[in-house]
Amino acid sequence: MSAARLELQPSWKLAAAISAAHVVAALSVAVVLPSWSGYLLAAALVALGGAAAWSRALLRSSTSVRALEIAGEALTIELASGERFEAKLAEHRHVSRLMVTLSVVRPLRRTILVTRDMLSGDLFRRLRIWALWRRLPGVAEKQLAA
Question: SS3 letters for 13-50?
């Protein structure tokens, strides 16, 4: 049985995308509702975008996922706080050449988004294969010696 530990790196691209989406939403609210309540809602949206980018993309929150450990079909999640738990995943997931999303149903409900710049190319490829097939690619002993 092959195993892998995937330590996630902060993604400045994802942080920029999250922040930009919240800024666009805030500007839309400010245009549609040009009053103090609209501006207050717009400010709240920008703050929410900053908090989401801080936690999910820059991995700075204590509840941010910092590492994934894959062993066979099992997935262990390590948070920035040091807490570790084995996750039960939902069947639905999204795998593309840019990102992988994994929906955790137990012990807590959340979706983990891993972008291509959060891992090295080989590790991201291994995560994509595991997410699709729930198996890591094997390597023959002769290939390791080369």
Answer: HHHHHHHHHHHHHHHHHHHHCCCHHHHHHHHHHHHHHH
> What is the per-residue pLDDT across 76-111, written as a single tens digit (0 to 9) for each?
999 999 999 999 999 888 999 999 999 999 888 999
Going from N- to C-terminal start, the domains of the chain cover: 3-9+63-145, 12-57
Q: Pick from 64, 51, 61: which is nearest to 19 by CA? A: 51
Provide the whole-model pTM: 0.82
CB 110 within 8 A of CB 118: no
Reported as a single tens digit per residue, the pLDDT across 31-67 is 999 999 999 999 999 999 999 999 999 999 999 999 9
